[in-house]
Amino acid sequence: MQFGNPADMSRICVARLGEKAGRQFAAMARRGFELVRATGDLPATGRCRLGGPALLEPGTPWPEHDGVPLSLHAVLDTDALGPWPAAGPPAGPGLLNFFHLDPDIPYDDYRRLDASGPGVCRVLPADPARAIGTTAPGPARSYPAVPVHAAAVTMLPDCWDVEDEDVEFDRDLHWGAASLILDAMGDLDGNTAGRHCAFGWPDTSYTLKVSHRDESGPAVHLLQLAADADLGWGWGDAGTLYFTIPAKALANGDFRQATAQTLCC
Question: Which of 2.30.320.10, 2.40.50.100, 3.40.50.1580, 2.40.10.10 would CATH assign to domain 30-155+191-263?
């Protein structure tokens, strides 16, 4: 769920869910961004873009999965997306490169790989002052470079990313917190699963959870990429690719713990 005005979001939550549950749900809001193609009216946000060459520091090896190079899908310029709240990304590294195993690599290479294992994705940080454009080695694909404008929004989680302990609810009326949110807020879900988004909360449009939790809390959503015919990528029928990272790992700048998940119809 996306809102342009945090005050409107809080008011709606309280009106729909009641004083206590409404404030509890509103407290789960995160700052996110819709990523749309840059135009004359919507200038590119820093060096944020889809596709193109990676922006890596000299000497950084191109990431691979079992000897097969991954494909660069996006670059986020976190400096240009700031300033961040205390719970947001650390001051560095500035640039984040998002890689994923390309499903269109030669079949003989693809069939020997674990396409669902942790090695299928990588998020590589880079210092903007040192980063240089780096072209993908074959057989990884090089997608067209598309600068994007990042429009800031306030985002609430889908009902499937809300746990029973997150909000107070009447257990005689609802089987869980997800039921409460779905009933009270469902018509406000703009369904952004078909769009490119950064940070905030993922929008799955499915009864599946993306932001899994550990002792540090819900995983932080880094990037959501929808199927895009112009760029030439997709993940099954109406599929979406999500990158997340444990909150503690993000606070420590340890992007080695970032994972990716694809969901499709």
Answer: 2.30.320.10
